[in-house]
Amino acid sequence: MDNRLSGSLERAGYTVTQESKARYLRGMLNIGFYPNRMLADFYFLRHEYMLRLLSSAALRKGNAYIVKELRQLAQPADAILEFLNQLVKLVERQIIQRGYRLECDECSLEWWYPLRELDNDRIRCVGCQHYIFLPLELDFAYRLNPLIALGINNGALTIFLAALALESGRHYFYDFCAVVRKGTLITDIDLLLRKEGRLCLVECKDNLPEEAALHDQLAKLAIIAQETDADAYLATLADAVPDSILAFATEQRIQVLTRQQLLQP
Fold it and tell me: Where are the alpha helices (DSSP H) in the chain?
């Protein structure tokens, strides 16, 4: 981890390591682009319909869908054209991958095949290895990039949206999934960033856990923030934050970023 992020923690006596899932998140940001062109490319997450689409458990499991089915998952309402334009960009960037959903005539195995496996209008069955010839009419089927699915399963949606919400544009550095230790205090911090010289520590939750567990995490976050003179945040995509959590966060000087604030331009 960059010393500009971990330095304040280490000077306060903390040991900082990173969870392996940090690599998933960094890999997501680099899909289809050169390094350091990263965070701004995920502004599309601020659309409710994109969150609905990417939150689909079936899509994250690797299921493939035609465009009509993707629209049903996303429910873009009056923003259909905007949604389709966004979808084109995600396909170009390989965040969503284009292919075919085919059933083998020989063994009846139904599978999704990427376009790169197409060989003169035929594709070799992943099961029995016989060739499947494309029918005369066939819609493309779209699947979530497996790395994107893995990252989303590890909390990427809230983490990226929190990073976007706190982006300052000047002297801005960030990294993910730190494990912080000092004596008996051990906790993970989902997002660390430094903006304009100020260290920010962010606990990110797609959905809020039981209040007792969240209280414990926020209490540890508050101790670390106080000892490192950092700003502390709780970011969540939950539809509502209980009043008791809001009161506890205020008491601990932790700022809460709600779903509405994360999606606000």
Answer: 3-11, 21-30, 48-54, 57-60, 67-74, 80-92, 146-153, 156-165, 211-228, 243-251, 259-263
CA distance 101 to 80: 24
Query: What are the respective helix, strand and coil percentages of the chain, to the nearest 5?
Result: 40, 25, 30
Q: Are 265 and 47 in contact (CB under 8 A)?
A: no
Pair 7, 41 in one domain = no
Q: Residue type at 264?
A: Q
For residue 166, the one-letter residue type is L
Q: What are the tens digits of pLDDT across the range 57-107?
A: 999 999 999 999 999 999 999 999 999 999 999 999 999 999 999 999 999
Structural domain that includes position 88:
32-144
Residues forming a β-bridge with 204 = 235
Question: How many DSSP H helices and E strands does the chain contain?
Answer: 11, 11
| Secondary structure of residue 155 in the 3-state scheme | coil
pTM of the model: 0.91
User: Do residues 194 and 200 lie in contact, with contact meaning Cβ atoms separated by under 8 Å?
Assistant: yes
Bridge-based pairing of strands 172-182 and 15-18 is antiparallel
Of 144, 177, 204, the last residue of a domain is 144
